[in-house]
Specification:
Blueprint lengths: L1 H37 L8 H8 L1 H48 E3 L4 E6 L6 E4 L2 E3 L6 E6 L3 E12 L3 E13 L3 H11 L4 H20 L4 H6 L1 H11 L7 E12 L1 H35 L1
Antiparallel strand pairs: 1-4, 2-3, 2-5, 6-7, 7-8
Helix pairs in contact: 1-3, 5-7
């Protein structure tokens, strides 16, 4: 409203100056006409009256010049006031754009935004955007991309107190479920991926020792998939906000298994040699009978 009132006042001022300018032009024309009539033969005019009329044209010219200057200034002020909204709009864009860029947060597909500070608790945003309240909320991100964890246990006792060495590899990631993301945020927010992988490795190794203690070395070697499933069931990674996409037993070693393998190889060689000897004896008997 103040801007409109100021603009209306300037417009009225410009109209008033135009009217004064028109009156000054008429007075100047009348003075010029009066001067032309004075050049004709006429009765002498008193000196005081002649002096007053002689000083008229220069005064009218100065009035006209002042009116022109005032009208120009009024029009210039009117144009300046009209340009104020555009200037203010540009300033708002320049000032507010960086501020909005810092307050409007966008979560890419491979990240989860965690906003903390409101009384209601954490806000989790995945694949969308959120407005962070300044001086109220803080925002951090969790990487949802998977990574490889290598777990290895040495001298883990299998059933019968037989020590075994087992190595496994797993693909682990922070869970996508918002409730599990809250668990991960409480434990790993701001941690590098290496520390998250270390925590997952320790949990998997503990689960491997628990599972191996219930199986014999022969069962561990014969059905590695069953061992992997048992490890996944025993590893409570969901409490950490993690999930396992896959787990594989890549190596099983121990002296008992190695000795058992060598014994089986020896038995197989012995059986092959006995079979070969029996075949040779049968052929020899066949040749003698002929």
């Amino acid at each position: 409203m103040a801007y409109r009132d100021e603009r209306e006042a300037l417009r009225q001022r410009a109209e008033t100056l135009e009217q004064e300018l028109g009156e000054a032009r008429r007075e100047l024309a009348e003075l010029r006409a009066a001067g032309g009539r004075r050049s004709e033969p006429r009765a002498p005019v008193p000196a005081a009256t002649s002096g007053a009329r002689a000083s008229g044209p220069p005064g009218a010219f100065m009035l006209l010049l002042a009116a022109l200057i005032a009208a120009g200034m009024a029009l210039a002020m009117l144009e300046l006031v009209a340009a104020v909204p555009v200037v203010m709009a540009v300033l708002c864009v320049v000032v507010l754009a960086p501020l909005l860029a810092r307050l409007v947060l966008i979560a890419p597909p491979h990240q989860a935004l965690v906003l903390a500070g409101r009384p209601g608790g954490l806000r989790i945003v995945r694949g969308g955007r959120a407005l962070r309240l300044p001086l109220v909320e803080m925002a951090r991100s969790l990487d949802l991309r998977p990574f490889v964890v290598r777990a290895e246990v040495r001298n883990a006792f299998a059933a019968g107190a037989v020590p075994v060495d087992v190595a496994a590899e797993a693909i682990v990631k922070i869970a996508s479920d918002p409730e599990l993301v809250v668990n991960a945020a409480e434990r790993f927010l701001g941690f590098p991926q290496a520390q998250i992988g270390l925590a997952a490795q320790q949990v998997l190794e503990g689960a491997m020792r628990e599972v191996l203690s219930q199986l014999t070395p022969e069962q561990i070697c014969q059905d590695r998939g069953k061992v992997a499933d048992a490890v996944l069931g025993a590893a409570e990674l969901r409490k950490l906000g993690l999930e396992v996409l896959g787990l594989w037993i890549v190596r099983v070693e121990n002296e008992y298994i190695d000795g058992l393998g060598r014994l089986r190889i020896a038995h197989a060689l012995r059986d092959a040699e006995n079979a070969e000897n029996a075949e040779n004896a049968r052929r020899a008997r066949g040749g003698a009978s002929q």
